[in-house]
Amino acid sequence: MRPIDRVLGLKIWQGEVVADPLGGGITNVNFRVRDGRGSCVVRVGDDIPVHQIMRFNELAASRAAYLAGVSPQVLHHEPGLLVIDFIEGRTLTAADLCDWALDQALEMVIRTHRDIPRHLRGPSLTFWVFQVIRDYALTLTDGDSRHLEALPALMTQAQALEAAVGRIEMVFGHNDLLPANFLHDGARMWLVDWDYAGWGSPLFDLGGLAANAGLSQAQESVMLTRYFGQVDRDLMRRYAAMKAAAALREAMWSMVSEIHSELDFDYAAYTSANLLTYRAAYDAWTQT
Fold first, then answer.
1. Neighbour count for residue 4 (Cβ, 10 Å)
2. Residue 1: which H helix or E strand, with range?
3. Chain segment 242-269, per-residue pLDDT in tens
4. Predicted confidence (pLDDT) per residue in 16-68, tens digit
5. Chain centre to alpha carbon of residue 160
6. What pLDDT does 121 receive?
7. pTM for this predicted structure
């Protein structure tokens, strides 16, 4: 069944129903739906084992994020479909985060780590980026990826990064802090898309935010000082290692998507761009 047919076939609608595709998604197919009650977003997607996405976990995180005041309300769910309230606003860009939006985005990250666990119900997943990277390497090998020759060096580098990160504080993280996952309605920020949510290091969300937005060193210093209060050389080196790992995970996510995703998106170009981000972050870590 086509995604649009699944959406229109839901029994929750009242009155006339109009569904329009929402652009920008690179994991799920999303629609904005208007009916007699208002507007909502329907996310269409089953479990994606190659990306460790389990929809029970996304649902629990989405519900807790709403209760924590971070994300829109979940209105309905059933297998393969998640319906959430529509936020009238705009998605952010890397330029926004580097300009006026960083402080508000960081507040969303802090509230995620601090407040979501107070509302989280049932079992939840762990997100350890280095296990994700190892699993991606095996998936790429099984799929005869065009990136096979690069994998041995990348895995050696990932092992060094994992050792550098060392012991961690555990928080409940979003783990996919792309600029487009931040929304602004003109009055406040929202954080959406909880596909990869799970327990892990706060350094991953912070490093991912910095890598995906292209923050400057000065902005990173402000971000880390606000989050931790005090920053020393050891923390900076562990953070730099995790930032590089976050960029590598994004690149390898795209490599896997090249051979497994059916969405109309230029994953090859996305892989290339994120490999450049990773190499810059890895080189910066080696110099800390």
1. 15
2. none
3. 999 999 999 999 999 999 998 889 999 9
4. 999 999 876 777 899 999 999 999 999 999 999 999 999 999 999 999 999 99
5. 24
6. 97
7. 0.95
Chain segment 126-143, per-residue pLDDT in tens:
999 999 999 999 999 999
Of the CATH numbers 3.80.10.10, 3.20.20.70, 3.90.480.10, 3.30.200.20, which one belongs to the domain with range 3-85?
3.30.200.20
DSSP 141-189: HHTT-TTGGGHHHHHHHHHHHHHHH-S---EEE-----GGGEEE-SS-E
Helix runs in the chain, H state only: 3-8, 55-67, 94-99, 102-115, 129-142, 151-165, 202-213, 217-228, 233-260, 267-286
Cα 280 to the chain's mean position, in Å?
20
- The span from the CA of 88 to the CA of 260, in Å, is 32
For domain 90-286, give its CATH number from 3.30.1300.10, 3.40.50.300, 3.20.20.70, 3.90.1200.10: 3.90.1200.10
Q: Over the stretch 155-170, which tens digit does the pLDDT of each residue have?
A: 999 999 999 999 999 9
